[in-house]
Design goal:
2 domains, 5 strands, globular, alpha+beta, 150 residues
Length: 150
């Protein structure tokens, strides 16, 4: 991806466009997806890296800002964040309206399984997962936990 395209994507994302809207715009301007110069997977990966960089730059506050932006778009979106004494995130929990609906329909059995500190922030990933009527996993909520205390 060229530096000019990367800057254009950053500008569009900062203006509030979604990742796929930015790709669609670039494809339209280039005269088709084949002329963009990168594929949709590269585009998605670049935008993911932008979001990670944004979170790393102001870590906790940026994450809270992103979560706050979701609430007006999804009235059932819920999150709770706890910070430690140094202002770092120690625990975070969230769920959106689709997760809530899946829980209401398929919440008879809930699996709570953690991975032990395998992410860059050294937090325990704790997804709340169930099985739908097609025997596929569906996520009910997710959390990152700083320690294993109650």
């Amino acid at each position: 991806m060229t530096e000019e395209k990367a800057e254009a994507i950053k500008t569009m994302k900062s203006s509030g466009l979604t990742t796929m809207d930015t790709y669609s715009y670039m494809a339209t301007e280039a005269g088709g997806e084949q002329n963009v110069g990168h594929n949709v997977v590269n585009h998605l990966n670049f935008c993911s890296r932008l979001r990670i960089e944004k979170i790393e730059a102001g870590d906790a506050q940026t994450l809270v800002n992103i979560l706050n932006q979701e609430q007006p778009e999804d009235p059932n979106f819920f999150f709770k964040v706890k910070f430690d004494n140094e202002g770092r995130i120690s625990n975070i929990f969230w769920r959106d309206s689709m997760m809530l609906e899946h829980y209401r329909i398929y919440g008879d059995v809930l699996v709570f399984d953690t991975t032990y500190k395998t992410n860059r922030y050294n937090l325990i990933c704790a997804p709340f997962v169930g099985i739908n009527n097609h025997w596929h996993n569906c996520m009910f909520a997710c959390a990152f936990i700083g320690d294993e205390k109650t």
